[in-house]
UniProtKB/TrEMBL annotation:
<dbReference type="GO" id="GO:0003677">
    <property type="term" value="F:DNA binding"/>
</dbReference>
<feature type="region of interest" description="Disordered">
    <location>
        <begin position="1"/>
        <end position="44"/>
    </location>
</feature>
<keyword id="KW-0804">Transcription</keyword>
<dbReference type="InterPro" id="IPR036390">
    <property type="entry name" value="WH_DNA-bd_sf"/>
</dbReference>
<dbReference type="GO" id="GO:0003700">
    <property type="term" value="F:DNA-binding transcription factor activity"/>
</dbReference>
<dbReference type="Pfam" id="PF09339">
    <property type="entry name" value="HTH_IclR"/>
</dbReference>
<dbReference type="InterPro" id="IPR029016">
    <property type="entry name" value="GAF-like_dom_sf"/>
</dbReference>
<protein>
    <submittedName>
        <fullName>Helix-turn-helix domain-containing protein</fullName>
    </submittedName>
</protein>
<dbReference type="GO" id="GO:0045892">
    <property type="term" value="P:negative regulation of DNA-templated transcription"/>
</dbReference>
<dbReference type="InterPro" id="IPR014757">
    <property type="entry name" value="Tscrpt_reg_IclR_C"/>
</dbReference>
<feature type="domain" description="IclR-ED">
    <location>
        <begin position="105"/>
        <end position="288"/>
    </location>
</feature>
<dbReference type="InterPro" id="IPR050707">
    <property type="entry name" value="HTH_MetabolicPath_Reg"/>
</dbReference>
<dbReference type="InterPro" id="IPR036388">
    <property type="entry name" value="WH-like_DNA-bd_sf"/>
</dbReference>
<dbReference type="Pfam" id="PF01614">
    <property type="entry name" value="IclR_C"/>
</dbReference>
<keyword id="KW-0238">DNA-binding</keyword>
<keyword id="KW-0805">Transcription regulation</keyword>
<dbReference type="InterPro" id="IPR005471">
    <property type="entry name" value="Tscrpt_reg_IclR_N"/>
</dbReference>
Amino acid sequence: MSTRSAFEAAGRTPTRGGTGDARDRAGHADSPGGSVPEPDTPHPISQALRALEAIGEAPGGVSAQQLATDLELPMATIRYIITTLLDDGQIVHLADRDVYVPGRRARDLGETLSRQLAVHPDVENAISIVHHQADAAAYYAVYRDTEIVIAHIEDSDRRPRIRPLDVGFHEAVHSTAFGKIMLASMTFDQRSAYFEHAGLQAVTPSTICDREILEEQLTHISGSQVALESGEFQNGLACLGSPVHAANGVVVASVAISLPLDELRARRWNVERAVRQGAVRISRSLERLGVGSQ
């Protein structure tokens, strides 16, 4: 399954149905005084994005209760998120079915992101080849300064993509194969400045948070041109990646795959070969396209 627009039409033109304000439409009748409880979890923005993604992926819309079940969040938090998204026009409430569907602003954002992140057909083809050769979800990540943007994904029901639930890539760069490749391409001073701002938080018990150990790993990545993380971003999951170079030799992106940890260990070398070949294939495409030639 290739990357897709985050938001699809819900089968009818959604309208802000029903009467009352957003709190009523979010199902706040049982909240004392109609007030909206503040979420007490540490990543409210991440939770809102997860909710927006879940709503966008539900063809016929999703109820507040189902959203709470799917995201494993308290109803108080879901109500707060829904109220915020309704007020911002990101979602709308279909009162006749009591479900939520993407709003105009969310669809506009999805279309804008799709245009901005559009990759060349050569890149799409290369990632598709990696997906099939490695028999794994395959990713193309682009580096924008110190930000990582996942520009293209090839996955399937059998080989699903990573679903970051509690933290985003920007908070866990050091725990992902994409991020380790980006960090390995920096100088020591550049990394020091980055970590001073971003920190080195533990995402799982396996996350490498010791700067000295991480530096040793990044030195190895720079030399081997392959990055491996084992359960650092999600328990039981491993990712392996290789850098993509522009014509001038600068690391501008990476190709990576994700698999259950035990399976990657068993198939490591075949998977690594597919990832390396994919990265080389895209690097050559970027050179033909003149990316980084100046």
